[in-house]
Input
Amino acid sequence: MLADWVELNALHSPDGRIGFGTLVSASDMATEEQDEDIADEDVRQDDLVVSVQAEINERRKVVGPDYPFSVDGNGAAMQMVADVTPVGAIYLFCLFLSHAAVRTIIPEELAPEVDNDVRDLFQVCATIAAAGYVEGIGTSFGWPRPDGAEFLAALQRIYALFGDGTPVDEPPPAAPDDVKDDGIDVIAWRPSPDGLPGTHYLVGQVASGKNWRGKTVKAYMDSFHQYWFTRQPASPASPAMFMPFCLEPKANEDFDRQEIAVDHMQKLVNQFGILVYRYRMASYAARGLKVNAESGHLIERLDELPRVAQWVRDYSDRLRAATN
Output
């Protein structure tokens, strides 16, 4: 969360820059009691800066060259990059969504409104990231679909493209009249070299709100395949969850940071399948764009990525105008 504070404050500062010393000042203001021992206070401040710098470095490493911030050579400050790439915009979009319902950094009156249009833009990001994860084709199945296609028509179209699995021709007798997506938002796969079944296949759910822990595509995936197909896909499906948040495992002084992160992710993967959180979202999206450019593999709604970038620019301008 402190790394988010640094990023957001760099973004809305007049020159797009923030010194890590500002973090220490803000932390001191939030602390009611100062350490009586000045040496202890200096150690606390140093540890705070080092921990945040480590988190920023982890973000830079995972996101790669599209990370929308740079750090001074001496590590004293962080700066917004002059030209944010489309993948950088996806990262910032996730950053903003993470604070839509959190009041510790962005006040309520400035928090982004996460309406259906914004949720739909996040599905655009997730579809691109899903294509990057499988290094192949990404399709957007979640409701509402831009073309307005009904559930069964969309299902038949996607699996005709996939070439693995045969959906039913007509809804089963007890099928609900208003089925939208049956809990499935993104479907992606890597085309096999011979076009035959048996490949990397992902079935994902998209969660842009804090209630993501109450969802898991694992609860829908088996029944989805069993109920809506006369012949299920032979390719083993990988369940996935796409979310804009960062991982925030609890601190434990008995273990180092990496051990905690590994244990936390193992627990989450057991619950949700492949977890595509903010860092991975940007990294896989970059890979999706690269594969699309090099191989021409279909990524549905890729042409809507400029809408994400425009939303990020508009909201960034709003933050700067309100805080300067």
Summary: The chain has two domains: 2-105+314-323, 116-305. The CA atoms of residues 5 and 28 lie 15 Å apart.
